[in-house]
Amino acid sequence: MKLKLFFLGFAFTFLNIQAQNIPLYVGTYTHGDSHGIYRFEFNTETGDLTNKQLAINIDSPSFLAYSPDKKHLYSVNQSGNGFVSSYNINTDGSLSLLTRVSSNGKGPCHISVNKSGDKVVVSNYVGGSVSIYPINKDGSLSEASQVFNHNSENEASHAHSAKFSNDDLFVADLGRNAIYHYKLKNNDYKLESPSIVKMEGNPGPRHFLLDKKSEYLYVINEYGGSITSIKKTKKGFEQIDFDATLEETYKGKNKCADIHLSKDERFLYGSNRGENSIAVFKRNSKNGTLNRIQNMSVHGDWPRNFSLDPTGKFLLVANKKSNNISVFKIDQESGKLSFLHSINSPEPVCLLF
């Protein structure tokens, strides 16, 4: 009887450990030791990253996105003239290539999927264009259904990120210092505004996010070392706040990269490449404004994308130049970060839970 109880307890513990492990896919540049998209197992109780494997050997899959049902994965590929790839996620976590199509612009750097899972949008940094692709029922991609060229005679576009929000599509254009707004009309996206708010100087809007109700939009500015906070109004949009991401004592060069909200939307995080830190902000839930409360070292060099795990208890940072992923614990009361550990990973750029 005791032996039976022992084995039952062991089995329960083993299943519990397995249940705590979730996949983390890592997009990379393949200029050095990296060979494609990697996969780790992440323990949502301990924050440990284990069982690293090469999910697929493919060229510079720098940014990744899931389908809503997480049966397929999508990437941009910063090689040649630029590509977009779709993958089937196999039962063992490896990836199989489904389709590979032109990104319709050089330097594709960002990809996202709409909530219904029938469209992908890709931002081409070098080409200055934004491409929309239909997703087929099997997860494969058709050729682009729409391509928007943001370049003008006087200004070069550098489209850096784009996201769907219900019937809206927003695009951060670092080259033209603008957040573009498109509206879905008769199954096509039409330009609503080339700039939802005026961006003073040359801040270089890079990535952005919307809150759950799509009432607020937060933009991290690559050149400006700052975050622009925007509120949606009945008449359009208005800027409500502007905050520095850097410590006042830091005087070196810096380029901001990524931005995320905590699960409860009480805190906002942004990455600094140069200061090599994550800036932590407390968010006012009533008026949407921000107050910076911490700059935490990333324990690495050149933090690109970072991600919060699905439990909201951990924050993971992809440090490209130092070839490591750093794991931080999030204090659920204060929102502040404490460093746990890091693990080697070749040229990490994007972390996808």
UniProtKB/TrEMBL annotation:
Molecular function per GO: 6-phosphogluconolactonase activity
Gene Ontology CC: cytosol
GO BP terms: glucose metabolic process
Family matches, as Pfam families: Lactonase
Signal peptide: 1-19
UniProt keyword list: Carbohydrate metabolism, Glucose metabolism, Signal
InterPro entries, per the entry: Cycloisomerase_2, Haem_d1_sf, Lactonase_7-beta_prop, WD40/YVTN_repeat-like_dom_sf
Family of this protein: Belongs to the cycloisomerase 2 family.
Protein name: 6-phosphogluconolactonase
Lineage, opening ranks: Bacteria, Pseudomonadati, Bacteroidota, Flavobacteriia, Flavobacteriales
